[in-house]
């Protein structure tokens, strides 16, 4: 059975690394573990990357049970690639109070 302890233990061991990223989580136990990490003061915020609208809403609900907001969702977004406006990701982030963080906002230099 998957528990939240491995997430908490792994992050506790790496607190000396600022900006630590914990990736490839897809189930509630990982999110609950990250909420525990936030609530114990080992992290300032919990953010995700490349979550679609459904996953943003779900993660926000799971984290909210522990009193933790979903701080950010980093997705590809630029003047040329505006999919988050059409696929519901931007709206889901707004609903959840989650900051949408754009990666590749200059289209890998194309807009410079």
From TrEMBL:
Keywords, sorted A to Z: Oxidoreductase
Domain of life of the source: Eukaryota
Stored Pfam families: Aldo_ket_red
NADP-dependent oxidoreductase domain sequence ranges: 30-112
SUPFAM superfamilies: NAD(P)-linked oxidoreductase
GO MF: oxidoreductase activity
The protein, known as: HTH araC/xylS-type domain-containing protein
Source organism per UniProt: Haematococcus lacustris
Classification lineage: Eukaryota, Viridiplantae, Chlorophyta, core chlorophytes, Chlorophyceae
């Amino acid at each position: 059975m998957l528990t939240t302890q491995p997430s908490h233990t792994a992050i506790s061991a790496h607190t000396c690394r600022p900006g630590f990223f914990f990736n490839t989580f897809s189930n509630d136990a990982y999110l609950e573990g990250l909420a525990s990490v936030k609530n114990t003061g080992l992290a300032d915020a919990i953010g995700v990357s490349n979550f679609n609208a459904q996953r943003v809403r779900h993660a926000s609900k799971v984290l909210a049970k522990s009193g933790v907001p979903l701080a950010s969702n980093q997705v590809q977004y630029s003047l040329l690639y505006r999919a988050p406006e059409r696929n519901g990701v931007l709206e889901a982030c707004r609903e959840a109070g989650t900051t949408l963080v754009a990666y590749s906002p200059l289209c890998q230099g194309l807009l410079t």
